[in-house]
């Protein structure tokens, strides 16, 4: 009996010893489970949510052309936007035929023909677009960068036509095979009949609402990721990092190779890895995929974001590639400023390796409390305001949309509705 009891006690002691050894080898004191990623970083905390690349690929707006020069706009997350885009995603587009953009009068088409125009900002490479739409790309089309898709039905035509516009402004690809019917297009267009009418400007490149828009600001409770959490997520061995206090109140953590800077009272972080390999032929599609994986492993997503790539000709597309994820609250983008940096994540990648990563550390709920209502101008008042902006700055307004401006009120974040006007030099002017 005594020998059996000794055996049981000895077995328990061996088991406890093995558990302790495992904890000492594979865990850091006071942390959660440790997972080492393939890139050599350590993921230790379940922080923000995980996202797939498909979650970040969608149009920034949907222009509905209703014929007789009537138009409206649906923005992301609105009911009609989601319904129409989901249906288009389920359709097949194939047999792409290239032609110069000057082969058609697009102003006349927008004025006279019912159709749906999807805007993808500065554009997406076709391989990325294929992740969110069913496109059978041939050799010529698969190398394109698409910033607009336009599906319309002409008078007397038996089937609709679908055009994919290259962001170079010179080329358009028509999908000769598509499984959309004229009735499909007319049904989608009919959703815009009772919506706010928009007036086209500048050869139908800008649209302004014909009347003022009333939007409520949102007030969000905030929490924040800690510097300790980010250290454990970004450094292979947080124990060897050292802290440097800056005179402006920011803090820098470094392991002599990488650095993490925490600013704005712990609300913003900037990470740099100067040891990243030199860039050789940056690939936009691979860079976006790598950026999404990196964020999933190092902080996660604290909201809804849309991927944005640099415009062609700006130097970012073929050198060290900048991938920006614009945050959305509801249907509108959140435009951070020098006062409150919030609303985007920015990464620079070199051959799939992140050399620069900046983001907000604020955590907010998906929905906040409704705050004050704001009336944004429309109609002629808004047109006059756009003209004045161009006169004052000596630049053309190339894009125009409603957005939210973040403002801190203690521990609460206020999202205030504004108009945003993008100028031809890529700067943005906001007003309400």
What report would you give on this structure?
- Strands 15, 16, 17, 18, 19, 20, 21, 22 and 23 form a 9-stranded antiparallel sheet that branches.
- The model is unreliable at 1-44 and 313-318 (pLDDT under 50).
- The chain has helices at 2-26, 79-89, 106-112, 126-129, 182-190, 227-234, 284-297, 379-393; strands spanning 35-36, 42-43, 61-66, 71-74, 92-100, 114-125, 134-135, 145-152, 161-166, 171-178, 198-201, 206-209, 213-221, 223-224, 242-245, 251-254, 259-263, 268-272, 304-308, 321-329, 332-333, 344-350, 353-360, 362-363, 369-376, 397-409, 412-423, 428-431.
- It is built from 8 helices and 28 strands.
- With 432 residues, the protein is an alpha+beta fold.
- The radius of gyration is 26 Å and the shape is globular.
- The protein has 3 domains: 54-195, no CATH class; 215-219 and 367-431, no CATH class; 224-362, TATA-Binding Protein.
- A hairpin with a 4-residue loop joins β16 (251-254) and β17 (259-263).
Describe the structure using short key phrases.
Regulatory protein YycH domain-containing protein; TATA-Binding Protein; YycH/YycI_2; nine-stranded antiparallel sheet; 8 helices; alpha+beta; 432 residues; YycH; eight-stranded mixed sheet; 3 domains; disordered N terminus
């Amino acid at each position: 009996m005594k020998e059996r009891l000794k055996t049981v006690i000895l077995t328990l002691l061996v088991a406890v010893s093995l558990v302790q050894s495992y904890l000492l080898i594979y865990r850091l004191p006071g942390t959660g489970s440790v997972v080492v990623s393939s890139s050599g970083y350590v993921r230790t905390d379940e922080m923000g949510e995980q996202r797939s690349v498909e979650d970040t690929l969608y149009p920034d707006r949907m222009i509905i052309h209703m014929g007789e020069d009537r138009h409206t706009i649906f923005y992301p997350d609105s009911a009609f936007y989601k319904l129409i885009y989901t249906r288009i995603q389920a359709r097949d587009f194939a047999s792409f035929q290239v032609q110069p953009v000057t082969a058609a009068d697009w102003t006349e088409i927008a004025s006279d023909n019912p159709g749906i125009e999807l805007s993808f900002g500065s554009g997406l490479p076709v391989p990325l677009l294929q992740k969110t739409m069913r496109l059978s790309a041939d050799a010529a089309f698969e190398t394109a960068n698409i910033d607009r898709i336009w599906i319309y039905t002409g008078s007397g035509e038996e089937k609709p036509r679908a055009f994919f516009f290259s962001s170079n402004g010179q080329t358009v690809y028509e999908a000769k095979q598509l499984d959309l019917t004229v009735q499909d297009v007319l049904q989608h267009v009919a959703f815009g009949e009772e919506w706010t009418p928009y007036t086209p400007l500048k050869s139908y490149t800008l649209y302004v609402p014909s009347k003022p828009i009333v939007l409520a600001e949102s007030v969000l409770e905030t929490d924040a990721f800690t510097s300790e959490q980010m250290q454990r997520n970004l450094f292979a061995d947080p124990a060897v990092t050292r802290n440097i206090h800056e005179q402006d109140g920011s803090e820098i953590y470094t392991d002599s190779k990488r650095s993490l800077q925490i600013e704005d009272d712990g609300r913003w972080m900037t990470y740099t890895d100067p040891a990243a390999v030199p860039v050789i032929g940056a690939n936009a599609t691979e860079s976006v995929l790598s950026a999404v994986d990196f964020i999933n492993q190092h902080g996660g997503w604290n909201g809804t974001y849309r991927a944005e790539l640099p415009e062609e000709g700006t130097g970012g597309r073929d050198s060290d590639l900048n991938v920006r994820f614009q945050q959305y609250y509801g249907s509108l983008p959140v435009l951070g400023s020098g006062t409150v940096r919030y609303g985007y994540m920015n990464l620079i990648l070199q051959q799939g390796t992140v050399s620069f990563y900046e983001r907000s550390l604020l955590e907010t709920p998906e929905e906040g409390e409704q705050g004050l209502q704001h009336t944004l101008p429309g109609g002629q008042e808004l047109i006059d305001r756009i003209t004045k902006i161009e006169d004052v700055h000596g630049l053309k307004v190339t894009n125009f949309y409603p957005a939210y401006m973040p403002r801190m009120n203690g521990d609460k974040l206020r999202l205030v509705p504004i108009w945003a006007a993008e100028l031809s030099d890529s700067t943005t002017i906001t007003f309400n």
